[in-house]
Design a protein that fits this description.
The complex is a heterodimer of chains A (305) and B (374). Helix content of chain A is 71%, strand content 1%. Chain A has 305 residues and is mainly alpha-helical. In chain A, strands 1-2 form a two-stranded antiparallel sheet. In chain A, α1 packs across α10 and α2 crosses α9. The radius of gyration of chain A is 20 Å and the shape is globular. The termini of chain A are far apart. Chain B is an alpha/beta fold and 374 residues long. Chain B is globular, with a radius of gyration of 22 Å. The chains are: A mainly alpha (305), B alpha/beta (374). Chains A and B meet through α1, α4, α5, α11 and α12 of A and β7, α8 and α9 of B.
């Protein structure tokens, strides 16, 4: 029995390290965008497009890192489009985000057709578990460099928001348009850049899907991770460090279903597959406070107005 | 999220082509010739190059394209919704298709049946659906292959390759066709060594790459060293297993390219046999059969070539059992057979060949399978 518990816990640790990275990147990107007062639901499309572009670039050039860069650039461009259109008067960013989502997936499916079959060069893992002679532990601790990059990005974003002039400006623009106007801050430009760079991060998340885990390009690759990440941002209260924990929790919850089945707990697997969503609901309910709006939410977000 | 991206690309192309065609009316003798060709429509639920279910059909369609007097029209990624009705209607009205193959399970009822009632001169043949003479129109029908036999052979190959005596099966949903495959795989392995256990994981969806990869990793974490599957696109499972250095048995199509080191053999469809026969009937003006089933002997299914990892003893065993199956009447489900809860599911002295109607309602996992239907 203890053996099975150990196996499940190890599988959940491994699963959280493997599955969390796309959640981390998309939620960081979304966090950056929302901090500037805008929502980008298009990051699901950016994720899929990033996955396709990364896979195609890695296949054509033989370098997975070139693929990661290309995915970031593709995300940057799609994000800039979203940011640009939303700067126009009376454009609804939620509706535009859905348009970007459909456009991103459509473009990716259209140009990705020839890359469904070929096998591209994948990103190598870093063997953090080299000290152990247990093959399962070693495999669980085979960490993707993008995961470490994601953690670094989260820390950098956190520092940026709290300790730099740029971060302060983004927060002012996101919290109070009136204050930003009074201070003479360039509102549209700040939001455009925040959206573009946020989408670039989401694009890197897509590169992880196609170039590391599951490490293959096809049209069903993303199962809504980009949309779930939007909920993750709410869940982590617009705090980049919390995004790390939230992503890890989602990854672990996602690994619960398959690993329980392998140790013989086979009833109700549909229920265990729903674990990530149940976790989100429970945490949201527990942390909800009475009052005007969610704690930590930027004042200018269209969902809060 | 294939919302409706594929919705109108085809329609747009067709209306453009249609306009161009109108301009050329009466000018081209070749067009007139083409009009006499038998137009056959293929509809797939996923991408036709998925290394899986859809590719198996699309490969047969590609072979048919080379036949004289036949014109093939295809559409992929058509959801099992009203979208498939639109696709069928457009194939009938715009392309002049008179024989349609909607290949996915969920197309049958109600979409295909409704279209069949509306277009009585068009023939519809559905892959996998249960056509019944007393319930369904005569211009519809169904065809399927007994691929469970190939999974039995996969199980034999797996038993000769495994060192841990634990093998795994990643399944989509616990429906009879999937359960027959899981059971056959387990029974094949146990025919070689009764101590072998087969762990099954249900992912709950026909195509869910991240969950399939996670299931593969979970199985490997439990010491499983041969894995096979029944999902729409086995690519992710084969590649993940190969990367982790374990053996694989393929399903739907030949996946040896994805796992050159660990691929033992695989269970494949061979739909060209069925399609060629149907088209020959249609061209000769004969009625197309309404209910068609076949196995290895009839050439409806086939095995992948052996991979380098399969030991000589395994090759001999698989080849010998396959020869027995080809003679016909071979039974994998032989009594006394218990399920994994201890209930007798096939009584002593009774045996169920691939054609047995009881198997089409299979709702148990046999002894030696670790897992439950849920």
């Amino acid at each position: 029995m203890m053996d099975s518990v150990g196996t499940v816990l190890l599988a959940m640790l491994a699963g959280s390290l493997r599955v969390s990275t796309p959640f981390l990147f998309v939620s960081l990107g979304e966090c950056l965008t929302e901090k500037s007062g805008r929502i980008n639901l298009g990051n699901e499309g950016v994720l899929v497009l990033g996955a396709m572009v990364a896979y195609a670039t890695s296949y054509e050039t033989g370098s997975p890192w070139a693929g990661v860069l290309a995915a970031a650039v593709a995300g940057l461009l799609l994000g800039a489009l979203h940011g640009g259109v939303c700067s126009l008067a009376r454009v609804n960013d939620v509706a535009m985000g859905i348009a970007i989502m459909l456009a991103g997936t459509g473009i990716a499916f259209f140009f990705g057709k020839p890359y469904v079959q070929p096998s591209a060069t994948l990103l190598p893992g870093i063997p953090v578990g080299f000290w152990s002679d247990n093959a399962q532990v070693r495999n669980a601790l085979l960490v993707c460099p993008l995961f470490l990059l994601g953690i670094a990005a989260a820390v950098a974003l956190h520092w940026c928001f709290n300790a730099t002039r740029v971060g302060l400006r983004i927060r002012i623009v996101g919290d109070s348009q009136d204050a930003a106007l009074a201070l003479g801050l360039p509102i549209d430009r700040t939001r455009l850049l925040a959206t573009a760079f946020g989408s670039a991060l989401a694009g890197i998340g897509g590169a992880f899907l196609s170039l590391y885990y599951p490490g293959s390009w096809n049209e069903g690759l993303s199962s809504g991770q980009g949309l779930m990440a939007v909920a993750l941002v709410v869940f982590s209260r617009w705090n980049p460090i919390n995004c790390i924990y939230a992503s890890l929790l989602f990854g672990a919850a996602g690994a619960l279903g398959p690993s329980l089945q392998t140790v013989g707990i086979t009833w109700g697997y549909y229920l265990f597959y729903a674990a990530p969503y149940i976790v989100t609901l429970v945490v949201l309910i527990l942390t909800a406070r009475g009052g005007r709006s969610l704690r930590g939410m930027p004042g200018q977000l269209s969902i809060g107005r | 999220m294939p919302v409706s991206t594929a919705l109108s690309r085809r329609h747009l192309l067709q209306s453009t082509a249609g306009a161009a065609g109108l301009a050329a009316v009466g000018l081209s003798a070749r067009e007139a010739q083409a009009a006499k060709d038998l137009v056959v429509g293929f509809i797939y639920v996923g991408p036709k190059d998925d290394y899986g279910y859809n590719q198996a059909h699309a490969e047969a369609a590609a072979m048919l394209k080379k036949m004289p007097g036949v014109k093939i029209v295809e559409e992929e990624k058509v959801p099992e919704t009203d979208d498939v009705s639109k696709t069928m209607e457009s194939m009938i009205k715009l392309d002049g298709a008179t024989l349609l193959f909607p290949t996915s399970f969920g197309y049958f009822d109600p979409y295909m049946l409704k279209m069949a009632a509306k277009y009585k001169s068009v023939e519809f043949r559905h892959c996998g659906g249960l056509w019944q003479a007393d319930k369904h129109p005569m211009n519809t029908g169904s065809y399927f292959g007994y691929i469970g036999m190939c999974q039995y052979l996969n199980g034999i190959a797996a038993a000769h390759a495994t060192k841990t005596k634990k093998i795994g099966f990643i399944a989509a949903k616990p429906i009879p066709q999937v359960l027959i495959n899981v059971n056959s795989f387990a029974l094949g392995a146990r025919s070689v060594d009764p101590t072998i256990t087969t762990s099954v994981i249900f992912t709950g969806e026909w195509s869910m790459p991240v969950k399939e990869a996670e299931a593969t990793n979970s199985l490997i974490g439990q010491g499983i060293d041969v894995v096979t599957c029944h999902v729409d696109g086995p690519k992710v499972i084969m590649e993940t297993a190969e990367r982790r250095g374990i053996y694989t048995c393929g399903y739907h199509a030949d996946q040896s390219k994805l796992a050159p080191k660990g691929y033992l053999t695989g269970a494949e469809w061979n739909w060209i046999t069925v399609y060629k026969q149907f088209i020959a009937d249609a061209q000769a003006g004969k009625p197309i059969p309404n209910f068609t089933r076949g196995g290895l002997a009839e050439g409806f299914v086939k095995m992948s070539p052996f991979g380098p990892a399969l030991p000589e003893a395994g090759r001999k065993n698989v080849t010998a059992v396959k020869a027995e199956i080809m003679k016909g009447g071979y039974s994998v489900f032989k009594g006394p057979l218990k399920d994994n809860k201890g209930n007798v599911v096939v009584a002593a002295g009774k045996s169920l060949p691939e054609t047995a109607i009881e198997l089409e309602s299979c709702n148990y996992l046999v002894e030696g399978v670790v897992g439950s239907i849920g």
